[in-house]
Amino acid sequence: MKETFRTHKTLYNGWRKEQLTALIRGMEEMKDELCEAVFKDLGRDAFATELLELGTIKNSAQWDMANLEKMTKDEVVDTELVLGPGTTLIHYEPLGVCGIYGAWNYPYVVTLKPIIQCITSGNCALIKPSEIAVHSGLAVKKLVEKYLDTDCFQVLLGGVDVATKLNHLKLDLICFTGSTFVGKIVAQAAGKNMIPCIMELGGKCPVIIDRTANMENTVSKVCFGRFTNSG
C-alpha cells in the first residue's frame, strides 16, 4: 500500500471522486445486507441502522464530494513583508497509509466514515473492524473489496493478535475507537514509531435530573439515549 501511495494516484481529485461514488453505490446496493449483519450482531433493527449509521455515512460522502475542490485547494495566506514580493500558500498533502480500528457498537460509522476522510484527503487505509461484531466486519470487508480500490484499501479481520500486528506496523496515522484501556496500549505502541493518533475513547455518560425536570419528557429522552443502540 505504501508503494501504491508513492505512485501518487491518490493525489488526484478524479480518483477520490470515483472512490466516494463507488462507496455510496456500494452502501445503497448492500443496504439490506449491511442492516442484516448489524441485526445479527446487535439485534438492532434496519430503521435504526439506516438512521444512526448508513444515512450519516452517505451524507458525509456526498458532502465531501460536493466540497472536494474547495477542501483540496491551496490556501493563500499573508506573506511577511521581508519575504515580499513572494507569496505564501498552505498546500495540503496526504500522510500515507492510515490504520483504522473499529468498534462493535457502531461498526459502520467508526470504519466507513474514516475511510471517507481517507479518500477525501488522498490517503490509503488498513481497516480493522471489531472482532465482536463478526457479521458487520464481514460486511465491511465485502463492501471494500467489491467497490473500492483494493490497492489502497484493505480490511483485516481477526482478534487481538491481528490488531497487535497492525499496531506495530509503521503506519502514518492511526484512527482508533474503543476503550481507554486499549487506547493507551495503541498510543504507547504508536509513540515508539512516532505515529500520530486520532482517538475516540469510550467512557461514562452521566445524566443529572433535578426537581424542576419534566419527568415524562426526561424519562423518554434518557431511555432513548440508553437503549437506542443496544444499551
Describe the structure.
The chain has helices at residues 2-6, 13-29, 31-42, 46-72, 109-121, 134-147, 160-167, 180-192, 215-227; strands spanning 75-77, 88-90, 97-101, 124-128, 153-155, 173-178, 197-201. The protein is α/β, with parallel strands linked by helices. It has a single domain (2-71, 93-202), classed as Aldehyde Dehydrogenase, Chain A, domain 1 (3-Layer(aba) Sandwich). The chain is globular and about 65 Å long. The two termini are 38 Å apart. The mean pLDDT is 92.
Q: Helix and strand layout, with pairings?
A:
Blueprint: H1 2-6, H2 13-29, H3 31-42, H4 46-72, E1 75-77, E2 88-90, E3 97-101, H5 109-121, E4 124-128, H6 134-147, E5 153-155, H7 160-167, E6 173-178, H8 180-192, E7 197-201, H9 215-227
Parallel strand pairs: 3-4, 3-6, 4-5, 6-7
Antiparallel strand pairs: 1-2
List descriptors.
13% strand, five-stranded parallel beta sheet, alpha/beta, 9 helices, 231 residues, globular, 7 strands, Aldehyde Dehydrogenase, Chain A, domain 1
